[in-house]
């Protein structure tokens, strides 16, 4: 497999972007024009006049979730080469069970800590 | 392939430049995502497919979500009003210059010809093949190195991630406790 | 690179795009018909055109089945007022539908959809545009970019409902990505036997399921993957993006005309791709049935049959998605997060460890 084999993927991505852009343009060209007014130009808040800024501040929990996601995601990514080589290691007698058990241990330790501390608990 | 290189290099560099100059932090984050995607394309040209996929999966797909979450927590309109401090700007310029000069100096010399890596204990490498390996075999060879030669750094990375996790939770909990105390004080 | 193969590649890619968009479009019809059936209604049964109505028998039948509903819906999206509210952040407001639309359609190049058995050599070739032996990870990576469509739509709309919907559903999507990734690892752990170069390719997964589906051998993986796909495509019961009972329309509250339509098509496209992935990974792809040899003859007839059988399975999965939508109630946001982090993630890790132990026992004794 060489870089040239990725050309279909590139074509597919470009086609998808092109199609999306074409649809948006067509929608602008063919869409109706209607008059605007002050009420129509307010953000939708169930018919009430909008109160306060559109972007409110939100819980720091979202940030914690994203941070934990990155950390776990990196651990998951480390497992990809392991999946591919695990059985070969086993058959060839190269030690792998111990090391990967340690890695899983650290992984699970983090998970248990996170669950114990209730980092992802939303209701209080 | 040269045309692809030029295209992808532009896709990497132009958004990176725009990221620095745009006043809107959310736009900056989006430009950085574009730049990461361009970088992934460059990795594909270098036939480092696994790295390309990881670049998208981890950097573009995970880390930038966190960036966006943090940026959206801020009041973007206030941030946009900020004008760069002259001293900070000058310091940034000087550090950039030093960084570029340093890189040129290293690359013009013998480069980083793997002095550190060769110090690691010698373990037989993945059997060399005559013909180019498939993607999966490349990753397999990578796993072979990762779980033998580089086992210690690998485990240390795991511990590092654990420490980071604990840090995140402790910091957020501390914040929550303070907030709880504040609201309790306000009630009384 | 010569011109003719390049043009052929573009043609193939365009055909794939049209097929997937058609499936996505008609899954809207499936949704409307199945929901109508579950509610004891009839569903779309009137839309017709002057050329179809007069045809005897077939004309009324097509009208009854609502086959013409899809183009009618599309035209309606096209001709509605294209309204950009003045308070939005324009570049993001315009880019977000595109970002939501592209990832699900960008990955179809690596999805195999049938096989061709050469009548001379008996060699089996999977039909796929870009045979990539890291296929699964590629799909997951590109799929992880679709979160930006949602988050930027929410932020760019500058409206409270949109913003909350965008933030919530992006938090949901990243949380379930972990168990989604971990759930498929056991399958590939078993497949990558010593000396095999199966890698993470989608076509070798199908080959490995020649007589035995992974749904039977790795049921927990299949379940976790299914839940993950539901969450990633924002389908009920994980409908945090829209959750119309508390957020009106979620991240696309402020959208209209085909900008809304792109979100819509993107969601159904993602559902079609997700169904195709589940079929490839756990339902044997285009293999006939478990315990039975493939009846596909060599040559192109066999290819057509295998592609059709694959499509039948995909449509079956889409129908399953729809049935679930109208069966289960929506989770609350804190329940979604709790389920993802305290149940599914530990379960996925346990599943992987148990399978790793089983592999070790299998290989060492």
Descriptive report:
The complex is a heterotrimer of chains A (124), B (188) and C (365). By secondary structure, chain A is mainly α. Chain A has a single domain (12-117), classed as NADH:ubiquinone/plastoquinone oxidoreductase, chain 3 (Methane Monooxygenase Hydroxylase, Chain G, domain 1). Chain A has 3 helices and no strands. The longest helix of chain A has 31 residues, at 61-91. By secondary structure, chain B is mostly helical. Mean pLDDT of chain B is 77; it is low at 120-124 and 183-188. Chain C has 365 residues and is mostly helical. Chain C has helices at 3-39, 58-65, 69-79, 90-106, 135-144, 147-157, 160-191, 202-208, 214-217, 219-232, 244-247, 257-282, 300-325, 333-364; strands at 114-117, 124-127. Chain C has a two-stranded antiparallel sheet. Chain C starts with a helix and ends with a helix. The model of chain C has no long low-confidence stretch (mean pLDDT 83). Chains A and C meet through helix 1, helix 2 and helix 3 of A and helix 1, helix 3, helix 4, helix 7 and helix 12 of C.
Give the strand content of chain A: under 5%
In whole angstroms, how far apart are the ends of chain A? 53 Å
Q: What is the number of helical segments of chain C per DSSP (H or I, 4+ residues)?
A: 14
Q: Structural class per helix/strand content of chain A?
A: mainly alpha
Number of helices of chain A: 3
Keywords:
heterotrimer, A: 124 residues, mainly alpha, Methane Monooxygenase Hydroxylase, Chain G, domain 1, flat, B: 188 residues, Four Helix Bundle (Hemerythrin (Met), subunit A), 2 domains, 79% helix, 0% strand, globular, disordered C terminus
């Amino acid at each position: 497999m060489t870089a040239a084999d990725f050309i279909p993927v590139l074509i597919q991505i470009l086609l998808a972007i092109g199609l999306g852009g074409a649809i948006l343009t067509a929608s602008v060209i063919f869409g109706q024009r209607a008059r605007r007014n002050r009420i129509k130009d307010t953000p939708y808040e169930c018919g009430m006049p909008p109160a306060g800024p559109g972007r409110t501040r939100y819980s720091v929990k979202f940030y914690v979730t994203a941070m934990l996601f990155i950390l776990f995601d990196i651990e998951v990514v480390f497992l990809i080469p392991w999946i591919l080589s695990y059985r070969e290691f086993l058959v060839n007698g190269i030690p792998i069970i111990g090391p990967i058990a340690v890695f899983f241990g650290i992984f699970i330790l983090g998970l248990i800590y996170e669950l114990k501390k209730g980092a992802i608990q939303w209701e209080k | 392939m040269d045309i692809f290189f030029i295209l992808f290099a532009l896709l990497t560099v132009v958004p990176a430049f725009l990221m620095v100059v745009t006043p809107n932090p959310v736009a900056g984050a989006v430009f950085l995502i574009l730049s990461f995607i361009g970088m992934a394309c460059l990795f594909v040209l270098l036939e480092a497919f696994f790295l390309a996929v990881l670049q998208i999966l981890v950097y573009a797909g995970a880390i930038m979500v966190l960036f966006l979450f943090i940026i959206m927590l801020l009041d973007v309109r206030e941030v946009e009003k900020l004008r760069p401090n002259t001293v900070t700007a000058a310091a940034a310029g000087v550090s950039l210059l030093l960084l570029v000069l340093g890189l040129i100096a290293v690359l013009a010399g013998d480069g980083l010809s793997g002095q550190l890596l060769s110090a690691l204990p010698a373990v037989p490498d993945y059997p060399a093949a005559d013909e180019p390996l498939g993607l999966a075999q490349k990753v397999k060879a990578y796993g072979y190195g990762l779980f033998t030669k580089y086992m210690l750094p690998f485990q240390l990375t795991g511990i590092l991630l654990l420490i980071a996790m604990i840090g995140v939770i402790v910091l957020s909990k501390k914040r929550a406790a303070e907030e709880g105390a504040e609201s309790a004080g306000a009630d009384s | 690179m010569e011109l003719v193969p390049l043009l052929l590649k573009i043609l193939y890619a365009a055909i794939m795009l049209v097929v997937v968009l058609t499936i996505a479009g008609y899954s809207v019809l499936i949704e409307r018909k199945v929901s109508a059936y579950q509610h004891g209604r009839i569903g779309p049964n009137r839309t017709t055109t002057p050329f179809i109505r007069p045809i005897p028998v077939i004309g009324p039948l097509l009208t009854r089945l609502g086959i013409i509903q899809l183009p009618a819906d599309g035209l309606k999206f096209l001709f509605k007022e294209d309204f950009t509210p003045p308070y939005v952040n324009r570049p993001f407001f315009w880019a977000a539908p595109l970002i939501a639309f592209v990832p699900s359609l960008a990955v179809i190049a690596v999805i195999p959809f049938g096989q061709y058995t050469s009548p001379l050599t008996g060699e089996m070739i999977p039909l796929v545009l870009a045979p990539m032996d890291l296929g699964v990870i590629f799909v997951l990576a590109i799929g992880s970019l679709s979160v930006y469509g949602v988050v930027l739509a929410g932020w760019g709309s500058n409206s409270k409902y949109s913003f909350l919907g965008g933030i919530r559903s992006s938090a949901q999507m990243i949380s379930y990505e972990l168990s989604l990734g971990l759930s498929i690892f056991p399958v590939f752990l078993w497949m990558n036997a010593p000396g095999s170069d199966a890698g993470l390719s989608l076509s070798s997964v199908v080959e490995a399921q020649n007589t035995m589906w992974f749904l039977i051998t790795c049921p927990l993986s299949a379940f976790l993957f299914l839940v993950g796909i539901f969450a990633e495509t924002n389908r009920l019961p994980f409908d945090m993006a829209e959750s119309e009972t508390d957020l009106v329309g979620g991240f696309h509250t402020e959208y209209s005309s085909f900008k809304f339509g792109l979100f819509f098509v993107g969601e159904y496209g993602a559902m079609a791709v997700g169904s195709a992935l589940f079929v490839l990974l756990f339902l044997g792809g285009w293999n006939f049935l478990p315990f039975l040899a493939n009846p596909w003859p060599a040559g192109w007839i066999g290819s057509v049959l295998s592609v059709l059988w694959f499509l039948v399975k995909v449509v079956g999965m889409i129908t399953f998605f729809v049935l679930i939508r109208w069966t289960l109630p929506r989770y609350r946001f804190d329940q979604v997060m709790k389920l993802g982090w305290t149940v599914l993630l530990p379960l996925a890790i346990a599943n992987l460890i148990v399978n790793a132990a089983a592999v070790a026992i299998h290989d060492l004794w």
